[in-house]
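Hello forum,

I keep getting stuck at the same step: I have a sequence, I want structure tokens, and every attempt I make locally crashes halfway through. Rather than fight my setup again tonight, could one of you with a working pipeline run this one for me? It's a single chain of 387 residues.
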Amino acid sequence: MLQKELGELKSKGLFREMKEISGMQGPLVVIDNREVILLSSNNYLGLASHPEVIKAQIEAAKEFGAGASASRLISGNMILHERLEKKIADFKGTEAAIIFTTGYMANIGTISALMGEKDLVICDKLNHASIIDGVRLSGAALRTYPHKNVERLEDILKKEISYKKKLIVTDGVFSMDGDVAPLSELVRIAETYDAILMLDDAHATGVIGKNGKGTCEHFGIKEGVHVQMGTFSKALGNLGGFVAGSKVLIDYIRNKARSFIYSTALPPAIVGGCIKAIEIIEKDNSLREKLWSNVARFRDALLKLDFNIMETESQIIPIRTRDASLTMKSAEFLLKNGIFAPGIRPPTVPKAKCRIRASLMATHTDEHIDKAVEVFKRLKSEPHSKF
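Reply #2:
Ran it on my machine without issues. Output:
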């Protein structure tokens, strides 16, 4: 039965395989004994290979050991975990914060803790899968609104008045489209209809906003976003998730979120590295400035070549293709010519919106970007290409 289903995936061009990467997550990696430009990593600021972050992780491991060895509510709550929570709360401008082992765990734990069978969750249609899974675990009713369509969101809230609690959830920067949520409008709507507003800031934290603090800072919003979720695994170059908000919210999550209660705490080395990554972001804007310079260089070049990069506003740049088969042939061409930028297919994106998902890093040089552009230019002239 399993073999049959795998065969069907292969026939539809939806079978997934992993590429083995040698070395650190830098602008260049080795795949199949060839050095290629990495154009698909979430290591947006290059902190995954930053010497200060690596040093901090080594020092934390030496002082606190290899692992926490228990959940936070048993004996795994180390002084480092407390320091990181204080650090992220200060960074996000909230009263408190709580850390999870992954961003996925943060979303499913928080949503399933806050919402129940008598409640309603309303999601942007392009929200991350972990948000949808969190709603399913909660037992709450789920409604989705077309991407960034605040009028449709408002229509849903006007009609759905029988639920005990209402939660609006949105990504900040959308992970596959690279555009930014209309957060100011969402704050207004949440206040008007007495709804809780939750923001998944995974791809925005460290990147957007004057000081890299994320979507709230980008829009100048200080109040009205009740739940700020994020990860340490994107721009901060590490592992783990977090939720920041009021002290009451964080106390509640600590007592109710099963993915927090029943998970072993993050290893000390990871926590030490996360603390150092935030410190680097706070004291040095140069990495973020270089990232945005790289984004502009690559985006402008693709537009001149008449590629469809959709409505991106961020370091995530989707290059719209056609069907899944052509998308994967395009990804193979890129890799063969020294660029690792995988094809994105269903179920991650709709069938009619397959794409190459490129993402820029602060550590890319102008030469890296120019080479990538040249390969994309050649890709467009390939017989199989239908951009």
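The chain has two domains: 17-44+285-380, 51-283. If your local run keeps crashing, start a new thread with the error log.
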